[in-house]
Design goal:
This is Glycoside hydrolase family 28 protein. The chain is built from 15 helices and 45 strands. With 785 residues, the protein is an alpha/beta fold. It has four domains: 272 residues, Pectate Lyase C-like (3 Solenoid); 172 residues, Pectate Lyase C-like, CATH 2.160.20; 80 residues, Immunoglobulin-like, CATH 2.60.40; 164 residues, no CATH class.
Length: 785
């Protein structure tokens, strides 16, 4: 069975690329699953899942045998032995004139005659949108065959058709290659499909760079209108865009089609997503070379499809390489209720050269995604952010379940080899909690990235059925983020040389003062917390020699321990150890002249403030104050490289702290000629010239509360660079600077900042020292320090 999943590109080429594809079945008789199982699974995908699960003796979890079963339902479309050339219908290569009518007439006539192959010989052919018809294989015959889709955007060249835009149905500009409710269709051959999108055509609808250095996003307004129509249940026929609007079409979009093959061709310069089969059954992409880096240039996005095979493809994209979709919000949920999740996918033997994510699920996944098997894929670029990525939120909802990734070669990633979050975009704003369950990753090696593994879920819906087996990750900036995992299995896993299961998130709860009782907290990730051993250590100096002070989950601080340092060491049965940060034992329940204030006391114990230096908690803080405390929070002593700051010279006593915080992206430099908030750290909507003007820190300027909310999220230690839609729920939220608004919303969600009066945030009030201490202490607790 293994050889079916690992069929080489050479074998595929020998079988099916003798010029034009089609007509090849993906399985052989001896590879067919045993007769009894086949009989039990010939109907719906749901019954297949049930049959295999019962056979395996589990409740819903599948095995790799299911992948073999899926392959028995996937085959190439077959075409009659009849072919025509577009030259016979009036197409003329290399003349710069549109050949749309000739190409379309050939397709229409071949379909009407019962089917066959429409051949496009060598040469460049200019065309508008092409509509595929049943039983037609459109073959780009030679390597120098190029279909160039015109830059003249009008409804003659790109007519108004029923389409999907980012998971929502509507009427819009025709996809460049389109089909609706057709059977047995293909685009094959050795040639190239060139969408001719660039900064002046199609892509400028996403972002237009203005002469003054600012940017505009023409498509945003239309996208918001479509989202509102979707949520309100407006019928698709009334969601009309096209002329006068700016929703970009996808390159290849078959909708409600059966038996679809895209094979051998090269695709470049797409307006938006490259391959986007929607509600299709039996879809194959094989040997496709995708090379395009425009906005939202996803490679292959199967959406609410059943039986999908993506193999031997090359992805070099400006967004996710493969992004499995399942409809957005109400549209997606209605499809799920009608029995159309995205399910039964095989992804094998592909090369992921560049993109945001290699194999992604979401964020448009409201209809649910299940039964995805990825085998023997190569991820090969330091600018590839993730190898496997799940992204959703409480507005989307949906479940990702039964995902299996094995035998992956990940040479390098920028962010994390495995990344999953429910906080994408609007985060917890919504009533539809998503789920991640039954995810198994095995036989994986990777190097680099901000994190080895980053997976987080809402507390109400933890990740279940999570298995890591034979995983080795090296060179990651941080080992792991594991938020709300339920009973994970970790077998033969090492990250940065540390083996798992092992203790993580080790910290001390309470305030260490003489005579008080403090509590230890730790998690044995991949094991049973009852197998952890707690040992308390004490030293005279923070970096001094620690000696045992007690064992067990709690410790009563000795009466003579004031001024000394306590930390907690936790070990598992294999000897894996993790220690908390050192806590200073305070003299009494008073710090900085403030009594019985838990956050002030914990800030002093952690070294963020001096317990003996009296503070005025109502004092307005400056950027300098903020940077110094953030530097203490993260032990940032100095920048790794010289940071030039126009108003903080290198001989400033606080230069190292300020420069280190700026270098870490936790506070921003600003343009001294502009007083208003300008953009965010992760906003690509400014030119390099604008960014180059941001050279000043304004060390002695005060900080408005809305800017403090922005800073709080940047400095929380987790790269939440995509929680950009989180809405603050304060009564005065409209008064928050737009550039800061989403970060304030996220900071409020995490509890870093709260309303000041009633439900008013008071965004233009100045941040006080007391508020800064509270924020830093809460971030510290959030980070398990």
């Amino acid at each position: 069975m293994r050889k079916v999943l690992s069929m080489s590109l050479a074998a595929v080429m020998a079988l099916s690329l003798a010029g034009c594809g089609g007509g090849k079945n993906t399985t052989t008789v001896e590879e067919t699953i045993k007769e009894e199982t086949t009989k039990a699974t010939e109907t719906t995908a749901g019954k297949e899942t049930e049959a295999v699960s019962k056979e395996d003796g589990d409740s819903g979890e599948l095995t790799w045998d299911m992948a073999e079963l899926i392959l028995t339902h996937i085959s190439d479309p077959e075409f009659p032995d009849y072919s025509v050339s577009v030259l016979d219908y009036g197409a003329v290569p290399d003349d710069g004139q549109l050949d749309t009518q000739a190409i379309q007439k050939a397709i229409d006539e071949v379909s009407e005659k019962g089917g066959g192959t429409v051949i496009i010989p060598s040469g460049d052919y200019d065309t508008g949108a092409i509509t595929l018809k049943s039983d037609v294989n459109l073959c780009l015959e030679a390597e120098d065959t190029v279909l160039k889709f015109t830059k003249e955007i009008n409804h003659d060249n790109y007519p108004l058709v029923f389409a999907h835009y980012e998971g929502s149905k509507c009427y819009n500009w025709s996809p460049l290659i389109y089909a609706h409710q057709q059977k047995n269709i293909a685009v094959t051959g050795k040639g190239k499909l060139d969408g001719q999108a660039d900064k002046e055509t199609w892509w400028n609808w996403n972002t237009t760079f203005n002469a003054d250095g600012t940017t505009t996003k023409p498509s945003s307004a239309d996208a918001k209108v479509l989202r509102k129509m979707t949520d309100e249940g407006v019928p698709a026929e009334d969601r009309v865009f096209g002329e006068g609007h700016f929703l970009r079409p996808n390159f290849v979009q078959p909708i409600e089609c059966e038996n679809v093959l895209i094979e051998g061709v090269t695709i470049a310069n797409s307006p938006m997503w490259e391959l986007n089969p929607v509600l299709c059954t039996n879809f194959t992409a094989r040997g496709v070379h995708i090379d395009t880096h425009g906005y939202n240039n996803d490679g292959c996005d199967p959406e609410n499809c059943n039986y999908v095979l993506i193999e031997d493809c090359y992805f070099n994209t400006g967004d996710d390489c493969i992004a499995v979709k399942a409809g957005r919000n109400r549209d997606g949920r209605e499809l799920a209720e009608a029995g159309f999740p995205t399910q039964n996918l095989i992804i094998r033997n592909n090369t992921f050269a560049d993109g945001h994510g290699g194999i992604a699920c979401g964020s448009e996944m409201s209809g649910g995604i299940k039964n995805l098997f990825a085998d023997n894929n190569t991820f090969d670029s330091p600018t590839l952010n993730y190898a496997l990525r799940f992204k959703t939120n409480a507005e989307r909802g949906g479940a990702i379940e039964n995902v299996y990734l094995r035998n992956s070669t990940v040479k390098s990633v920028g962010n994390a080899v495995v990344h999953a979050t429910m906080l994408y975009d609007v985060g917890r704003d919504g009533d539809y909690l998503p789920q991640f369950k039954n995810i198994k990753i095995e036989n994986l090696k990777s190097d680099g990235g901000q994190y080895g593994i980053f997976m987080e879920a809402f507390e109400e819906v933890p990740i279940t059925g999570l298995v890591f087996k034979n995983v080795e990750i090296t060179g990651a900036g941080k080992d792991i983020r594991a938020l709300n995992w339920q009973d994970p299995v970790m077998e033969n896993v090492t990250i940065n040389g540390k083996s798992y299961p092992r203790p993580v998130d080790t910290k001390i709860l309470g305030v260490p003062v003489p005579g008080a009782e403090i509590t230890g907290s730790s998690v044995l990730l991949g094991g049973n917390n009852e197998d952890l051993n707690y040992e308390w250590l004490i030293a005279d100096e923070k970096d001094g020699s620690y000696v045992p002070a007690g064992t067990g989950g709690k410790l009563q601080i000795p009466d003579d321990a004031a001024g000394r340092y306590i930390k907690l060491s936790v070990t598992d049965k294999q000897g894996n150890e993790e220690s908390s940060m050192p806590y200073k034992v305070l003299k009494a329940n008073e710090a900085a002249g403030i009594k019985d204030n838990g956050e002030i006391l914990r800030a002093a114990a952690k070294g963020y403030i001096d317990e003996d230096e009296k503070l005025d908690l109502s004092q307005e803080i400056t950027n300098r104050d903020c940077a110094k405390m953030i530097a203490k929070l993260w032990d940032l002593d100095a920048p790794k490289e010289e940071i030039k700051i126009s108003d903080v010279p290198a001989n400033d006593p606080d230069y190292n702290a300020i420069a280190a915080v700026v270098e870490a992206g936790m506070m921003n430099l600003k343009d001294p000629s502009v007083t208003a908030a300008q953009g965010t750290l992760y906003n690509a909507g400014v030119t390099k010239d604008v960014a180059a003007k941001r050279v000043a820190f304004f060390p002695d300027a005060s900080i408005d509360r809305d800017e403090m909310g922005y800073i709080a999220l940047l400095s929380c230690g987790v790269p939440y660079n995509e929680t950009l839609g989180t809405k603050p729920k304060f009564d005065d939220a409209e008064g928050i600077e737009p550039a800061y608004r989403s970060n304030v919303g996220a900071s409020a969600y995490f509890g870093f900042m709260t309303a000041k009066t009633g439900n008013d945030f008071m965004p233009k009030d100045k941040t006080t020292m007391g508020e800064l201490i509270e924020i830093v202490t809460r971030i510290s607790d959030f980070s398990n320090k």
